[in-house]
Every structure is written in C-alpha cells, then in structure tokens.
Design a protein that fits this description.
By secondary structure, the chain is mainly alpha-helical. It is 69% helix and 5% strand. Strands 1-2 form a two-stranded antiparallel sheet.
C-alpha cells in the first residue's frame, strides 16, 4: 500500500507536497495555521493547498475547530519518508519552535528534536533526555532510542557528569525495555 501511496504523492504540486510534508511532520490532526507555519506557505497558500488535498482525498477534515489529518496514518508516514532532508530539518525545527512557544511537554518536543540530532545535536540532546524520562514508563524502547541519540552528541559539548547521568538513564531505559545485557 505504501508504494501506491507514494505514486499518489508523486502527482502532487510543489505547494501540495510542502503542505503534505508539514502535515506529516505535525503527525496527527493539525490546524491549518500550524501547517502554514511549518510549511512556510503562509495561510492563504496553505488553505489553497489544503483545499486541493481534501478534494484529492489525501487529507480529510476530521474534527471541529478546523482539524485535518491524512486519510490514513500510513499516508502521513509515506509523506514524511519521501520529504527531502532539507525540508524535513526545516519543518521539524519550525515545529519544535512552535511547540516550545506553546509550552508543549518534553515528549512532544523530543519527537521533533530527534530529527535534528545530526544538524543541531547540542540543542536536541537535552530535549531528547527530558522526553525520554517523561515517556520511560510507557515507551521504554523509544526512551532508549532518544537517550542513545542524546549520547551521540560529541563529548566536548557536554560535561562528563551530564554524560554519566545520561548513560545511567539509558541503562535504566534498557532495563525497562528488557534489554538487560545491553544495560
């Protein structure tokens, strides 16, 4: 099914692709004004692209308050996977900034920070560590991944005591995930 969805996404215009990428980065029901900030299309361009994507049944109106989502979660995943790296990095940075100004939780911020590790690891690492602590009881495997990414930040950018605390937290997450040998 993903291949067929890829063909469907290939037929989109540049503006529709930008909006689909922004919606994929937002991951879930989104408001047009949020997608406008993430896509960089502006509100008018976003509404035009949103109208076209709704007519093509790529995106649907799903909730009151002008909330929209992909017609199927797999379509959003395929859109995210097909977006170019520069597009994704910029979109995740804008999403992180948007959520930060709204006071979003650490896990919500970490979901975007994990995409910025290679480009802005020093800023992403603390967000990943806080997000991992927040989700550890419910999603230990994700906590392990986020802590592993935080530990990839070069040692020179982080004091050794902070690195040791991250390693200890990673061992806790590995244990919680049932990966005792690695812990």
């Amino acid at each position: 099914e993903g291949a067929a969805m890829g063909v469907e996404l290939d037929a989109l215009t540049a503006e529709q692709t930008a909006l689909a990428s922004a919606a994929a980065v937002l991951a879930g029901p989104f408001r047009p004004e949020d997608a406008a900030q993430i896509s960089g299309l502006g509100l008018a361009g976003t509404l035009d692209a949103l109208d076209e994507l709704a007519r093509a049944d790529v995106i649907r109106h799903v909730a009151p308050g002008a909330r929209f989502a992909f017609r199927h979660p797999l379509l959003g995943h395929v859109a995210h996977e097909r977006a170019s790296l520069p597009t994704l990095l910029a979109a995740h940075r804008r999403a992180l900034d948007l959520l930060s100004t709204r006071g979003a939780g650490a896990a919500d911020l970490a979901r975007h920070a994990e995409h910025l590790v290679g480009a802005d690891g020093a800023a992403a690492a603390p967000l990943l560590a806080r997000g991992a602590v927040e989700i550890l009881p419910d999603a230990p495997a994700t906590a392990v991944r986020w802590l592993g990414l935080a530990l990839q930040t070069p040692v020179g950018e982080r004091p050794s005591a902070e690195r040791a605390a991250l390693m200890l937290e990673c061992c806790r997450a590995l244990s919680a995930a049932g990966r005792f040998e690695e812990a």
